[in-house]
Amino acid sequence: MSERDITGLLFAAEMYGVQLDQLAARLGISETGARAIVARWRQQGYAESARLGPGRAWVWLTRAGLAACGLPYQPVAPALSRLAHLRAVTAVRLALESTASYAPAGAYWRSERRLRARAARRVPAREHLPDGEVHWPDAGPQPGSVGWAGECWAIEAELTRKTIRRTAAIMTEILTRTGDYGCPAVEVRVPGRPPRHTRVLYVCSAAARPVALRARGTLGGSLASRVEVRRLPPGAGLAGLAGSAPGTASSPAGAAGS
Amino acid sequence: MIGRYAGLLALRGVIRLLGRLLRAAVLVLLLIAALPVTLAAAYAATLAWFLGWPPRQLYRAAAWCLPMLAAWLAALAAAGQPWPRVAGAPYFAWLAMWHEVQAGRYLLAAVTIAPAAIPLGLLAGGLAWAWRIYSLETGSGGLTPSAPAAFDRRQWRHQVRTARGRIAAPGAVPLLLPNGSIVAGATIRAVRHPARALAVIPYPRVRSHQVVIGTTGTGKTTLLLRLWAGFIRRGLQLHAAGAGSRPLLVVVDCKGGADSRRIADRARRVLREAGAAATAIWPDEATLSLWALPPHQLTSTLVDMIEHGTGSAAYYQDVLAEVVRLAVAAPGGPPASAADFLGRLDAGWLAAAYAGVPGEAGLLPAAARHVSDVALRFRTLLRRLGGGLDGPGGFGDADAWYCILEGTAEIAVAEAQARALVDLLAWYATGGSAARREILLAVDEFSAVSRRLPIWQLYERARSLGLAVQVSAQSWQGLAADEDERYRVASTADGGIWLLRTPYPEPVAALAGSRRVVDTTRRLLGVPLWAHEGLSRAGGTPVVDAEIIRALAVGQAAYIYRGGVTYVQVKRLVAGPAELARPVRLAGAPAVRVGGGGAGAVALDATGIPGVRPRTDPLPDVSPVLDEAFGAEDR
Question: Considering only alpha carbons, which residue of chain A is nearest residue B614?
Fold first, then answer.
């Protein structure tokens, strides 16, 4: 098992499942190379792959694969209703990881699947979970450090329009949270403690973007200044569907997107 | 002689008749002369009768008209009118009105006199309405002997209609007032309580002991949900402002079954809207750990969970207690789970654990003969209890716990669970966790499982721990096992007693006491004429009318507090989007807004972060990395 295999397996496990082109982009290889790697994983019983929807085949980890990675997740294939959303979140992650400052700053992605697994250990709280977190560790004055070191960003990939009120409520919930996911309820919002998320990054389709902007406008000044709204990167839509270009339109499968 | 006497009587009759006619004529002339005031008063009194308003409502309306009067007078003064003219403005307006009427300009006449006539009319209407109520309450008014009772029944219907209209109006009944008081619903009628349109319960009363009695299907759950939601939301407001600990609601539903689960789900949705971050439903979805108790408390709880006999069985109880103590307090720490505890109930394990411990090791040979029996009993008990008490988890994990005990189906199990839950909560309240909480313990039909923990003991214990206890039952008899306990519970409910429809309200109604009323008897001259002679005397009548309680409709409740009662039409809380509470400002604290729909039900200060001062330094600009990742934004 090479380092590339480990990276790929962990990546697929954390994102619920990935499409071959995104896996290839993450590993820095061609799609043909990625297909060969996946074939080997399948042979070892670590992964499954299938063409679940439009575009490239999807890859997800089996029980054995998750166990090999030491991850306490349920081995399930990506749900059809979430394919578009999963692809969009993965695209956001890849876009952020491809920036020049990401790796030097030691930033890392904490996936929704990990957050959900942590939260599930506690009482069901019906709390909103972001699609991911990006942690920028404190680095001190050294090469590669960024001005926002020490921050934790909540990431939301938005494909479909929600109501402004609902979106604003989610923004508020994320920005006022002080505790980690899975913490006791008493620590979720503790007066006097700094918020968990310094900012929340909304990466939106063209349909969802106006709602996010207007929801941000309804928040108070100090909260609104902590909300960043951006467009989905190219290739974030499910290939083969109308509107698969970044943030041009929502797809039917994206109805379950958060 | 007889003829002269008859003539005298006739003359007296004629004089009396003339006197009455004269009085009536003067009255009619006065009413006509003050026609605008008369019309306003008649309208106000009729409206108050139709809506079942107390006279105070009209007085308040008159008071609210005073700014209009002041503005009118100020406008006259500003227009250059001399002061005597301004002072006599109502009189001059009255004269001017009649001139306008004579000229046929009725609208102008009404506008001319309105600033003075409306407040006066409201005041006069209020006085007339108050007199009408007084005369019927005292029995000195009305055409027929049954008029007072009929008037009361009719007024009740009018008051109920008004209260129902009020709770149906969107946004008319918020959960909290700006001062933090909890709004239970609309007031139907108040006796020896302030006659407000909304039935308001100050938060400290919810933090005191309360009793709720009402049969099935009367709206008890709706009322309780509203009180719980109010407790959570206000508690979170105070917590966010740094003025109190975070609230914790623990509901112990001792009925069990599918109905309890439906209520639990409803409670979770409602409490979520109120701001509760998590509502745990025990034992279906969440667990607690009995093994988190300190060893001495764990020993006591485990022993009390086992049913004992009396007489010679006391010997076995002592043996059992000693074996449990040895198992729990063994060197190496207390057990961490049921399996761990059962594993210790073994003579060999105990001998190995206490090897070399002087004193304790000497007890083992005597206890060894009974260890297997004790193990069998606990194995059976813990199997029947299920995993709900085997952890992980604690009361600190959620803002609200809805604990379902199968008190109807499995009484013995429910009794043991109740005992364990109360001990766990007591330990938590006394500082078993780092975070201090404002705790409200709500127990429904606790008497069904209170054989091993009498409810008065729970009550007293909770009081000593600073917990507020809310006891609810379907009837007076369901409140506690015997009459002494019932009275003890009811009479110490310093947060008030809620009565919904119940067939036997007398004991609770009696606790509200009586009030002094004037009762008048009159001489009947023949239906429907009364003589102008009678007798009035002061007497006592119950503050709470038991007949009204027996006839309460669904969603109606009587709130008894300090010798008064407020009849309430309870506003149902639905788990939909709730209106945002208005910002409230606590002394020395920034503005706080709590509530709102769905995920946004959080406590905020001006920054949106609980209790955090506004950040003065701007956040670093992250545009470079975002532009690189997602493309430049139009600015």
Answer: A222
